[in-house]
């Protein structure tokens, strides 16, 4: 169908043009930079060398990357475990007239500065903070909640949860109740119909949510710095510091391309496994 | 009730409980944020009683108001462009099965992969090479670039599986493509488009990293304003502004909700008008932008470095307008000047950045004959290593790095960096999250200069810092004074300006500059080489060095002034403040940080090793 093809391309054009001009072109410039080296004053000396990439694969930096992958995975899994039931509740238990309002309430906190909200978490979590005051009031011992891995994970889940919940909600809300009834009529228990009907039907939402949570989590730096007490280096902090502290743009660029490569490979794997799951 | 029925009731109750807990989780920090906007104390560590002062202050603070206005403009423009383009893109995939489907989808989703800082610098590279002047346009373009992919992913997840036959049926019944879109397609995907738009708005209005690189003259947004306050402590005015923004949004949503429920337009109009009035208030209160014919001086400065009343005096005297934009790190300043086209007339770089800027010919030589008030400055702050003869810069404020501690908790008086390595204070020590300052402390403890470049010395300092890590509660160079005030740590390395404010809150805090010596920093006024108002810039610099003006700046901002003619004009409380004006003999032990050239890379690697250690 010629008309449909032309229409498709026309619809796609604005997004493509903007991304090519405003993302791919600058990224190309960045790639050229990554082949250069830092001058004594922190500017870029153009060169064609893979030295920055060799350095990015040193054990020190691989370890940092590995830790970031673990953090991003943990964040994604937790967001999915919390987000799915809540999105289910929102899409299928709440009366329709409340749904939109409750969905918007998930995003509303994100209209204020993340930095200021992180400071608010510090007020909640610190030794004499609100949470500990509550614990002491009901006769429980005080616990150290701040400046550890727990706090980092909490901050990450807090910061990414809406990005998981929204796509999940959108695909769950669309789910046809008739399908569930049909499954029940055919004798499927809840578990069975969840696994065989609900999950496959909401797979686009699950994938979108996981992608939207996992990828930005890899670049996280605020929660590790503020809630984690800056005690651990993650790839986000490392790349950040190449640009704004060490002023080593070529190495920072190389690190970021290595990160993009890893993410790209992971997305490809995800796609493959989804396709093979669908063909079964 | 059957067993199964009871089980499903239980499950449903659990589900509701979990959902409520999740909402509480999302709103807990918002409750704190709002509560702090009513806190008399300017620091979050203590509750000083209820007040509405911060709202009044925010409403009369032109910098905060105009930054909020700028953020709203940027966020609205970004939301419209990104959501429309993303929805069209997502529909394209629905309408047509592209042969290159996987590739095209990848092209659109990949931008979510790039770390923000990389987007930021690459965008600056692009705009610099295109010769585009930094400002609103560059901010909006970059925001569109990084939010478009998010919006696309959200909308596409919804469209997947949307029944195409509905559209075909409408078409068969004689509806044109436009009617079909508005009557059939759009209603089906509207929730997704709305959700995407809300996300884009949230991403745009809170973006700091990208904006800080691509913002230009007159386009400081709220996040830039907030981050630039980090150095001097974020004031609860920000909480007040955030609360107003939340309230306005909530009111608008409430109006939309009423309308959706079929209430009369009149019922819904009241909250809607209230919400719009709140959102509109920064546009009215911020006053007019720069008038067309008036001469404008573009000042690029740290936050809380000059009071609005001081600016007003200069404007009145010279009949000009001063446009103030804010930054929060020397490195952001360097990046922007290196890219060129920034358009600033006056900047306030710290010592070592002056050195870097001079070396790259990014500063203009000063005309000393136009700066007669330079004679008011203390010679101790002139002719320093970074700019001999002050050919390019004059000192504006200075400060020190030291240790502040709570004397009710730390038994012995502290006078040495060794206190930060004392096992008695395990888990109660805070270090600056700053490679040069942390290594500086370790090097000074070994009796070395904090400008050392000898790799063996630096490795030894790294080992000291690794050893110290077991005692360190947190590395923090943003709100370290708050962590000290809250009692989470007893001793903290940090900069004097923030500690001075903390000491006003808690008289038990003591600030010391260790006997082994420490860092002196000097922030200077300078004129970029591409500045347009050379004469006016000189007039401004000279103005700030008048004794009365310098005293006013020092009194209102509470940083240490290098202007000795201003000292007698200062109130006792400022002049005698041990953190603002340390004793003269202490100053002898201070050393400036120098730009270390190639060794900077080694510092960064060793610091990463410290951070990666256990």
TrEMBL record, chain A:
Task: Tell me where the transmembrane regions lie.
Answer: 9-33, 69-90, 102-122, 150-170, 205-223, 251-270
Q: Does the keyword Chaperone apply?
A: no
Q: Enumerate the subcellular locations listed in this protein's record, separating them with semicolons.
A: Cell membrane
Signal peptide coordinates: none
Which segments constitute the ABC transmembrane type-1 domain? Answer: 65-270
* The protein's name: Spermidine/putrescine transport system permease protein PotB
Question: Which Pfam families does its entry note?
Answer: BPD_transp_1
Query: What is the originating organism of this protein?
Result: Luteitalea pratensis
Q: What is the lineage of its organism?
A: Bacteria, Pseudomonadati, Acidobacteriota, Vicinamibacteria, Vicinamibacterales
Q: Which UniProt keywords apply?
A: Cell membrane, Membrane, Transmembrane, Transmembrane helix, Transport
């Amino acid at each position: 169908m010629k008309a449909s093809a032309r229409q498709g391309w026309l619809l796609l054009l604005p997004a493509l043009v903007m991304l090519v001009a405003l993302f791919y072109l600058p990224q190309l410039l960045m790639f050229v930079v990554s082949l250069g080296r830092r001058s004594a004053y922190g500017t870029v000396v153009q060169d064609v060398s893979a030295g920055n990439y060799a350095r990015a694969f040193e054990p020190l930096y691989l370890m940092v990357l590995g830790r970031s992958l673990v953090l991003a995975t943990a964040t994604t899994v937790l967001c999915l475990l919390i987000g799915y039931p809540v999105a289910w509740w929102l899409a299928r238990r709440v009366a329709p007239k409340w749904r939109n309002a409750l969905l918007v309430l998930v995003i509303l906190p994100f209209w204020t500065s993340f930095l200021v909200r992180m400071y608010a978490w510090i007020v909640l979590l610190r030794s004499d903070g609100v949470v500990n005051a509550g614990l002491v009031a009901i006769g429980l011992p005080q616990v150290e909640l701040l400046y550890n891995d727990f706090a980092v994970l909490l901050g990450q889940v807090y910061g990414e949860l809406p990005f998981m919940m929204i796509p999940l909600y959108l695909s769950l809300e669309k789910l046809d109740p008739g399908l569930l009834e049909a499954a029940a009529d055919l004798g499927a228990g809840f578990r069975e119909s969840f696994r065989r009907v609900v999950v496959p039907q909401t797979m686009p939402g699950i994938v979108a949510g996981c992608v939207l949570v996992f990828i930005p989590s890899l670049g996280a730096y605020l929660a590790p710095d503020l809630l984690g007490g800056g005690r651990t280096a993650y790839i986000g902090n490392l790349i950040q510091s190449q640009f704004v502290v060490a002023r080593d743009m070529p190495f920072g660029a190389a690190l970021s391309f290595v990160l993009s490569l890893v993410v790209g490979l992971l997305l490809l794997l995800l796609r493959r496994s989804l396709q093979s799951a669908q063909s079964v | 009730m059957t067993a199964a029925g009871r089980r499903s009731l239980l499950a449903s109750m659990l589900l509701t409980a979990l959902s409520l807990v999740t909402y509480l989780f999302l709103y807990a920090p918002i409750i704190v944020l709002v509560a702090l906007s009513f806190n008399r104390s300017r620091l979050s560590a203590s509750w000083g009683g209820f007040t509405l002062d911060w709202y009044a202050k925010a409403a009369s603070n032109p910098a905060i108001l105009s930054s909020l206005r700028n953020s709203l403009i940027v966020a609205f423009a970004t939301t419209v462009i990104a959501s429309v383009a993303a929805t069209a893109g997502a529909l394209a995939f629905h309408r047509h099965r592209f042969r290159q489907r996987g590739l095209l989808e990848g092209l659109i989703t990949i931008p979510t992969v790039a770390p923000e800082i990389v987007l930021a610098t690459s965008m600056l590279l692009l705009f610099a090479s295109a010769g585009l002047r930094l400002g609103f346009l560059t901010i909006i373009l970059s925001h569109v670039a990084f939010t478009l992919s998010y919006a696309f992913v959200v909308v596409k997840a919804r469209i997947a599986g949307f029944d195409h036959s509905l559209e075909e049926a409408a078409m068969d019944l004689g509806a044109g493509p436009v009617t079909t879109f508005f009557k059939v397609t759009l209603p089906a995907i509207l929730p997704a488009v709305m959700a995407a738009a809300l996300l884009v708005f949230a991403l745009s209005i809170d973006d700091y990293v990208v904006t800080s690189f691509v913002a230009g003259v007159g386009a400081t947004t709220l996040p830039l304003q907030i981050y630039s306050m980090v150095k001097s402590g974020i004031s609860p005015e920000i909480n007040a502004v955030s609360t107003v923004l939340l309230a306005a949004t909530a009111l608008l949503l409430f109006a939309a909700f009423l309308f959706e429920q079929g209430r009369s337009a009149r019922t819904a109009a009241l909250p809607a008008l209230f919400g719009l009035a709140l959102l509109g208030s920064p546009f009215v209160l911020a006053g007019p932008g720069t008038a067309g014919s008036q001469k404008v001086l573009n000042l690029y400065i740290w936050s809380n470095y000059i009071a609005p009343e001081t600016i007003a005096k200069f404007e009145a005297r010279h009949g000009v307008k001063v446009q103030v934009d804010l930054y929060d790190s020397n490195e952001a300043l360097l990046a922007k000047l290196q890219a060129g086209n920034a358009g600033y007339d006056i900047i306030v770089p710290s010592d070592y950045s002056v050195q870097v800027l001079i070396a790259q010919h990014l500063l203009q030589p000063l005309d000393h004959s136009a700066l007669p008030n330079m004679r008011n400055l203390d010679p101790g702050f002139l002719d320093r290593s970074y700019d001999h003869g002050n050919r390019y810069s004059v000192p504006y404020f200075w400060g020190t790095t030291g240790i502040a501690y709570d004397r009710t908790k730390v038994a012995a008086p502290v006078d040495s960096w060794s206190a930060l390595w004392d096992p008695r204070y395990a888990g109660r020590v805070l270090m600056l999250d700053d490679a040069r300052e942390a290594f500086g402390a370790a090097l000074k403890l070994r009796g070395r200069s904090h400008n050392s470049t000898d790799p063996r010395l630096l490795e030894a300092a790294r080992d000291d810092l690794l050893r110290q890590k077991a005692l360190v509660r947190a590395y923090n160079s943003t709100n370290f004074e708050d962590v000290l005030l809250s009692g989470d740590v007893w001793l903290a390395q940090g900069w004097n300006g923030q500690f001075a404010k903390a000491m006003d809150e808690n008289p038990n805090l003591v600030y010391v500059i260790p006997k082994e010596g420490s860092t002196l920093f000097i922030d200077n006024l300078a004129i970029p080489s591409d500045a347009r108002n050379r004469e006016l810039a000189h007039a401004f610099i000279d103005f700030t060095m008048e004794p009365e003006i310098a005293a006013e700046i020092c009194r209102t901002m509470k940083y240490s002034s290098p202007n000795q003619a201003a000292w007698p004009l200062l109130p006792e409380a400022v002049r005698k403040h041990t953190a603002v004006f340390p004793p003269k003999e202490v100053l002898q032990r201070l050393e400036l940080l120098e730009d270390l050239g190639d060794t900077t890379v080694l510092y960064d690697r060793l610091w990463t090793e410290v951070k990666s250690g256990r």
